[in-house]
Model the fold of this input.
Amino acid sequence: MYNDIQTIPFEGPKSKNPYSFRYYDRNRVIGGKTMAEHLRFALSWWHTCCAAGTDMFGGETMDKTFGCDGIERAKAKVDFAFDLMQKLGIDYYCFHDVDVAPEGETLEESIKNLEIVTDYLLEKQNQTGIKPLWVTANMFGNKMFMAGAATSPSADVYAIAAGKVKAGIDAAIKLGAPGYVFWGGREGYDTLINTDVALELDNLGKFLTLARDYGRANGFTGDFYIEPKPKEPTKHQYDFDVATCANFLRTYGLMDDFKMNIEANHATLAGHTFQHELRMATVNGIFGSIDANQGDMLLGWDTDQFPTNIYDTTLCMYEVIKAGGFVNGGLNFDAKARRQSNTFEDVLLSYIAGMDAFALGLIKAYEIIEDGRIDEFVAKRYASYNEGIGKDIREGKVTLESLAAYGASLKDVMPMSGRQEYLESVLNDILFSGV
Ligand code: XUL
Ligand code: CO
Done:
């Protein structure tokens, strides 16, 4: 694949070469770190090596069989993905167990297949330095998971799910992945009439605790992540959004080991902005990693498009910088080329578009911070908490009575203008004033 293209070069914003980066210059230093260190791009195995254009109404528009089957096809996908990552300069990849290795008839057979393919992945990793950002187990595709995995009404399904997670954590340890993700594909309900919510939530809390304990006992030192999503495929998913997950993690004592893997399109499905979810994770101390994509606001489902909206990538990187940057996490393109973008060139062009959108977002986010007008405005807006009664409130030196006494004779009290339109124009100034 792509034999005539060696690597995608950085050629600067004026380049008209579609197979070049206009903004992503991996060694460019911004705020003391290279772009590659800031962005930590990852390839998603399922979309890139497996998704072939199917939708609810029609079949495949792309051939991702690689002309072979079984373990041979799995290895062909490894060759394809590593070649693509090297051409793009992507250092990480993310996968579900079933994306990389064929499922067997039993859990035991599936795990054997996974071991064969992870041996091959490890060889490739040693040759290239590329490694996983995170690993996960698919616990939603197989029909046995129709009613969930850790929230299934069947204890046998629960046990098989545990076996898959154990094998997934083993793979993460073997391949040196700094993350393990739980996206609760069908952990939710379609109707409350048939659902014991209390038992399901408790079972899920226990399941994640068992996974955490197994990982920690066996040398997994990375982060566990929950990936919130409000609905789809179930009507209601328990990991609805970041705030819901934070509450769940606190209830089950998992805040020290679990962080959030935030997906842009899941945020919008929850009726939030991407920025909202990132901010909520940071204020709860559970910002971890990002599934970088975007949805279509006119479609009510998870379209997993490559991110090209610069407002969103800028505000995302602004939040990432404010959170202190990625530690174990990164930007995983949980995104697929459109059904009509059905050639391998489109896969390459999609990654270039997404990487450039985030590189430009990073540049612009730093400009917002260096410009200072937005941060200064926010500081000024809350200045009343830096002295006097506000300082006392922050320091816990007040009572309801003392506040009432202080407020009793105040007149004509109003907060200052929020200046939303002005601040949005500052954002526009920064976004459109060149790079
Ligand atoms: C589904 C989704 C998943 C997770 C990993 O909406 O985002 O691909 O990222 O299971
Ligand atoms: Co995702």
Notes: The mean pLDDT is 98. The domain at 30-363 is CATH 3.20.20.150 (TIM Barrel).
